[in-house]
């Protein structure tokens, strides 16, 4: 059965996914109301968004497990948005129908995707029961929380996510003995794309904490985790921070996609082939400029997406463009009460950096808690 719009003449706008950009759209609808004459639906598999930036702090015992949650259900209820707890499993952009994992088909007039990408650890490394992909982040937290004591851990991925997780796991809360951690950073080494000063500080901090770094790709061979021809066994678990892959339904739908299969959007976060569809976050790829997949871009694109959806639903052309800053501030938790700051060519390190990171993270979470409680 295909759910229909509420009444004749009513438009249906669908938000697919409860990611960092869509919480800004929900906040806009709480504050200003859902656009007139519009039925709004949020399709997401979880009632909460887990903010990935606070997960390393939770692992190291600096936050409680649920401190980094945004209550999507409460925001949707406050905004008057219908909540469907399921995930997108297919899209027909011509018929304007989304199919859910449960097999339900939902019609829309305008849709916005912020579903994130998919984990690709098994495809890149091979399959092994000890392998835990960072994506999706909620499942990662659940699996990690269920593990008992860990003696030896391998982290795969030399980006900011892999580096932070290596630090966090070395300082895992509740561990009677600090686990040995090996970071298989890949041939690109530590923090590719970051300034040399940041890379140097991270390398020194990793060495200081006794974390082994290998500039080689990791892969399973004969049941063992290997990197550069070297066995990394024994290993209790292998954590993969190997980036995001495009959901298969994007390319299968026939909507415009980039070479990697991500949904292609223009400067307005609008599909380059279907102007009634928008996207932001890891599921999307900007065609007007290169933009790495990073939560910071999804956060800043959220208000732009909200404004453009409001314009299109009013029959107007989108006008807002997300123009990334020349550089963004990255704060990497080192798990031991300190953190490393990166801003373009500049780097800093210290307890004050971690204090700043905690303040920024908690403020971001708190703003949505306040919005969800608005009268």
TrEMBL record:
| Presence of keyword Flavoprotein | yes
What Gene Ontology molecular-function terms does this entry list? NAD(P)H dehydrogenase (quinone) activity
Keywords, A to Z, come to: FAD, Flavoprotein, Oxidoreductase
Specify the FAD/NAD(P)-binding domain's residue ranges: 13-289
Gene3D superfamilies according to UniProt: 3.50.50.100
Q: Pfam family example for this protein?
A: Pyr_redox_2
State whether keyword Metal-binding applies: no
Q: Which cofactor does it need?
A: FAD
GO BP terms in the entry: aerobic electron transport chain
Q: What is this protein called?
A: NADH dehydrogenase FAD-containing subunit
Q: Which organism is it from?
A: Erythrobacter ramosus
Highest lineage ranks of the organism? Answer: Bacteria, Pseudomonadati, Pseudomonadota, Alphaproteobacteria, Sphingomonadales
């Amino acid at each position: 059965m295909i759910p229909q719009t509420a009444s004749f003449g009513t438009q249906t706008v669908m938000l697919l996914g409860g990611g960092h950009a869509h919480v800004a759209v929900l906040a806009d609808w709480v504050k200003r109301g859902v656009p007139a004459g519009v039925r709004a639906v949020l399709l997401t598999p979880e009632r909460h968004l887990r903010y990935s930036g606070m997960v390393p702090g939770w692992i190291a015992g600096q936050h409680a497990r649920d401190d980094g949650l945004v209550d999507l259900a409460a925001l949707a209820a406050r905004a008057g948005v219908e909540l469907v707890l399921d995930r997108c499993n297919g899209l027909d952009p011509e018929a304007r129908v989304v199919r859910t994992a449960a097999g339900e088909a939902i019609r829309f007039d305008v849709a916005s995707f912020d579903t994130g990408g998919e984990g690709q650890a098994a495809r890149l490394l091979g399959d092994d029961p000890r392998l835990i992909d960072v994506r999706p982040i909620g499942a990662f937290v659940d699996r990690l929380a269920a593990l008992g004591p860990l003696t030896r851990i391998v982290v795969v991925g030399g980006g900011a996510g892999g580096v932070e997780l290596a630090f966090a796991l070395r300082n895992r809360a509740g561990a009677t003995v600090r686990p040995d951690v090996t970071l298989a950073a890949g041939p690109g080494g530590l923090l590719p794309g970051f300034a040399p000063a940041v890379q140097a500080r991270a390398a020194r901090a990793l060495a200081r904490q006794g974390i082994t770094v290998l500039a080689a790709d990791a892969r399973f061979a004969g049941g063992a985790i290997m990197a550069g021809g070297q066995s990394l066994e024994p290993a209790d678990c292998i954590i993969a921070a190997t980036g995001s892959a495009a959901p298969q339904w994007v390319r299968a739908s026939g909507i415009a996609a980039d070479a990697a299969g991500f949904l292609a959007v223009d400067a307005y976060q609008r599909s380059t082939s279907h102007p009634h569809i928008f996207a932001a976050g890891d599921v999307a790829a900007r065609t007007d400029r290169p933009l790495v997949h990073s939560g910071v871009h999804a956060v800043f694109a959220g208000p732009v997406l909200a404004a453009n959806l409001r314009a299109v639903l009013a029959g107007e052309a989108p006008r807002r463009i997300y123009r990334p800053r020349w550089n963004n501030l990255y704060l990497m938790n080192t798990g031991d009460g300190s953190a490393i700051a990166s801003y373009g060519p500049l780097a800093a390190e210290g307890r004050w950096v971690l204090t700043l990171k905690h303040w920024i993270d908690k403020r971001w979470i708190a703003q949505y808690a306040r919005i969800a409680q608005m009268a």
